[in-house]
Input
Amino acid sequence: MYCMGIDHHAQYSQITILDEEGREVKAGRVFNTRSEVKRFLEGLEDVEAVIESGRSSYTMVDLMEELGVRVKIANPSQVKAIAKARIKTDKRDSRILAHLLRAGLIPEVYRRGKGNRESQQVLRQRVFYVRMLARVKNRIWTLLAQQGEEVRERRAEVDLPPLNRSRYNGKNLGERSLNGQDTVHAGTDHRQAA
Output
């Protein structure tokens, strides 16, 4: 069995492969594409890999498993040999990960299923868009609040949808906004009556 340590980055990974005796069989920097990784693994069978948990580590985990490699995901805060190293390089990190895997000393993290990860991505994107919408709304209301009284009064001439019209009907919108009583946070309406 071969033990592979992967120091994963967004564009490339530094990979070190050791045999059962701990001798380095292959090492190198590989771009994170299916064709490059497949070419790097040519001629090797029965490979087990370890990668530190990170922002895009599941992309590499999925790719490795498609290529027939068993993968463990290490907890980076508990991989003390790498965390406490004085000289940190990608090559050293991948070699240390491979040696730790060979010795059976990998502190693994909980591994989420693909469906769970996809749902989480959707939820994170939704939260991002809701927060952006709230920021834009707050900015608009702040700008309106900073205008003169005639601009705030002309706001009544704008054809608002019924929900918004009933919410913002009142001449003291600017005063409420300036006093911090009229703000929207992350899609939730926290308005107080003036």
Q: What stands out?
A: The CA atoms of residues 77 and 84 lie 10 Å apart. Residues 2-103 form a domain with the Nucleotidyltransferase; domain 5 fold (CATH 3.30.420.140). The chain has two domains: 2-103, 114-189. The chain is about 45% helix and 20% strand.
